[in-house]
Specification:
The chain is of the alpha+beta class. The protein has two domains: 2-175, no CATH class; 178-224, no CATH class. It has five helices and 14 strands. The longest helix has 14 residues, at 207-220.
Length: 224
Amino acid sequence: MHKLIFTCCCFLLLSNCFGQFERNDIVRNQLSGGNLPWPDDSEYYEGSRYLYDEFVNGEIYTSDTVIADLPLRLNLHNVQVEFIWNDSVYQFLEVANIDRIVLDKEVFIYLNSFADTDDARFAKIWNNQFPLLLTTMNARFHPEEIGIPYVEAKPPRLEREDEHFVVTAERERFKVTTIKKLITQFDNHAEELSAFAKKEKISANNPDDLIKLLDYYRTLNGAP
């Protein structure tokens, strides 16, 4: 996992040159899997399994390939990358071969395992300097819950379960649960960070707030 994060950070911090594939090379080089029904004919549940329900033009980066201007959709429940080809929906056969996905300037990576679990996830990378902020994303299925007195029944549904993590230059990883606990990981500037977080009303659930806190930490360490 550390190697994967390091590789992805290098992609973000350095300029790389990739060979450009023609779009019809996607199928010839077996990057695509089987055709999927479109629209999806699976049983309907409340909520969504996708990051965005609509397809968004984006880029797929592998170790030596860029596939650009392709309508993409991230399936967070099945951890699949879906794309439109010849008016049909396909999914990539080997998601683990993808180094990163860019959708409208948002950068995502695929993690085989993370946070001491074996669950594969997509993660969004919010910044391009250490400490990095990653958000792992999942659309988890919850079965129907029968109503009982004082407890409302709930239908089968898909719910987002995202988690934020900070990754340091030393490849240490911290799950963000509270701002107070996060600041203890940066004890050399804990006092300044606590005052800043209080003044700016930093929330542990708001990625923009977390980026603001990490940017401030970098300035305390002399970063421009």
